[in-house]
Amino acid sequence: MIVVDGLTKSYPATGGTGTIDALRGIDLRIDEGEVFGIVGPSGSGKSTLLRCLNLLERPTSGRILLRGEDLSHLSEGRLRGSRRRIGTVFQQFNLLHCRTVRANVEFPLEVAGVRRTERRDRAETLLELVGLTDKRDAFPSQLSGGQQQRVGVARALAAEPDVLLCDEATSALDPATTEQVLDLIATVNRTLGVTIVVVTHELSVVRRICTSAALLDGGRIVESGPVADLVADPVSRLGDALLPAGVGEQNGDVTALVTARGSAVATPWLSRLSRDVGVDVAVVGGRVDRVAGTDIGKLHVRFDGDVDRDAVDRFFAVLPDVTVAWTTGVVARVGA
């Protein structure tokens, strides 16, 4: 669906001497129908990457492919047409306050020259999807923040885009409203099949709705992949941030990180491990949470005495949705 290949973006430095490299060789693949999260600290390049993805900025070098078409080198005329394939939901809503809710949703279609009856039908369908049919004739000033963002989602979907970009779409909302908007975004993904890219600094957003994610830092992709795989990786920086399992220093003990998904979270594998393999196991940290719509549990365990690692590996190899990674010598953060 979306392939970012060697993307760079540089700006002139203040004073006109040298340049500032905001993006440094970004390589990224976002598959069709995914909800893909891009996270990172302030100044990591998230906003710059988003402006390149929605074609508001031309990259300095590299390519952005959308279903095989290179968007980064289109002429201005073709670029205007391609922008309709990408909808954007903004942090500050950016609604037209002189227009009603329905007129806001119709606006992109009006600009595109779509007939009035078609615009109205499309707007009504989308307002039903976002649960605002009864607010069609209201003005933005009469809506709550969550309702305004719902209008923003409907407007971004008006031109039936291939991709929906969400630019910190919930950071201006309270926690309860944030959950409602995230649930709406997930519903849009399921019902319309739209590929969604979520740019955020909030890990809770990634945990709740994203199927895959990438960590951006210093203008580079540090790591990326399916969220469940990142969480299961004992050396993944993003996975540890998404689902930490606190554990103290191991002092050379033989330790492992066991990750279970879905129904396997409730499987009594710990007692079976002790019984079937004949090892003494102590739990030194752990957590269970819902990540990307799936229950995922991470448990740090310590083996007392001699342990046959091959036997332990064989034990876990036949358990569905349970994996083990040896972490001997790893010093994790206490209370992480």
Can you offer a commentary on this structure?
This protein has 336 residues and is α/β, with parallel strands linked by helices. The protein has 2 domains: 2-230, Rossmann fold (3-Layer(aba) Sandwich), CATH 3.40.50.300; 249-326, 2-Layer Sandwich (Alpha-Beta Plaits). Helix content is 32%, strand content 30%. The chain contains 11 helices and 14 strands. It has helices at residues 46-53, 76-83, 101-111, 116-129, 145-157, 175-192, 203-209, 227-232, 237-242, 269-277, 309-317; strands at 2-12, 19-30, 35-39, 61-66, 69-70, 86-89, 163-167, 195-200, 212-217, 220-226, 254-261, 280-291, 294-304, 322-326. The strands form 3 sheets. A 6-stranded mixed sheet has the order 6-7-8-3-9-10, sandwiched between helices. A 4-stranded antiparallel sheet has the order 2-1-4-5, covered by helices on one side. Strands 12-13-11-14 form a 4-stranded antiparallel sheet. Strand 12 and strand 13 form a beta hairpin. The two termini are 36 Å apart. Mean pLDDT is 89; it is low at 330-336. InterPro entries: AAA+_ATPase, ABC_transporter-like_ATP-bd, ABC_transporter-like_CS, ACT-like_dom_sf, MetN_ABC, MetN_ABC_transporter-like, NIL_domain, P-loop_NTPase.
How can the largest sheet be summarized?
6 strands, mixed
- State the CATH topology of the largest domain: Rossmann fold
> What is the class of the largest domain in the CATH system?
Alpha Beta
Low-confidence residue ranges: 330-336
Structural class by secondary-structure content: alpha/beta
Find the count of extended strands (DSSP E, 2+ residues). Answer: 14
Mean pLDDT: 89
Work out the helicity level. Answer: 25-40%
The share of residues in extended strands comes to: 25-35%
Instruction: Work out the count of structural domains.
Output: 2
Keywords: Amino-acid transport, ATP-binding, Cell membrane, Membrane, Nucleotide-binding, Translocase, Transport
Organism: Rhodococcus aetherivorans
Domain ABC transporter: 2-243
GO molecular function, one term: ATP binding
